[in-house]
Amino acid sequence: MQPSQDNNQAGEDASKLYVGNLPYSMGENDLKDMFAEYGEVEECKLITDFRTGRSKGFAFVKFAEEAMASAAMEALNEQEVDGRKLFVKVARPPRPREERRSYGGDRNDRNDRRGGYSNDR
After folding, report:
1. What is the CA 3 to chain-centroid distance, rounded?
2. Residue 82 carries which DSSP code?
3. Does domain 16-90 fall into CATH 3.30.930.10?
4. How many CA atoms lie within 13 A of 104 on its CB side?
5. What would the pLDDT profile of 53-82 be if each residue is shown by its tens digit?
6. Model-level pTM?
7. N or C terminus: fewer CB in 10 A for the chain?
């Protein structure tokens, strides 16, 4: 897979990269050190599982300038690290979250006749 070449999508920050297929043994500092060879890394965020704290195998790296990010993307995309071929491309902006549907309704509504336990019986 080739890095994303279309950097003109709305809201896209070409200085922020998505890095996928990372080895689970790689830490945030290791990742930052690997990308720092290509320029000033402003932010490095390794995504981890909420419950276990284990890496999910992908991260986001933000550079000070787009040229640095582009150099890192060209050099590191499809490079093998600890037996895994990295996938590096320009990160897309986060999608807006949909409102979560409430299944419980308003629990304080005493006129609710759906059944269940009630203190006023």
Report:
1. 17
2. T
3. no
4. 4
5. 999 999 999 999 999 999 999 999 999 999
6. 0.71
7. C
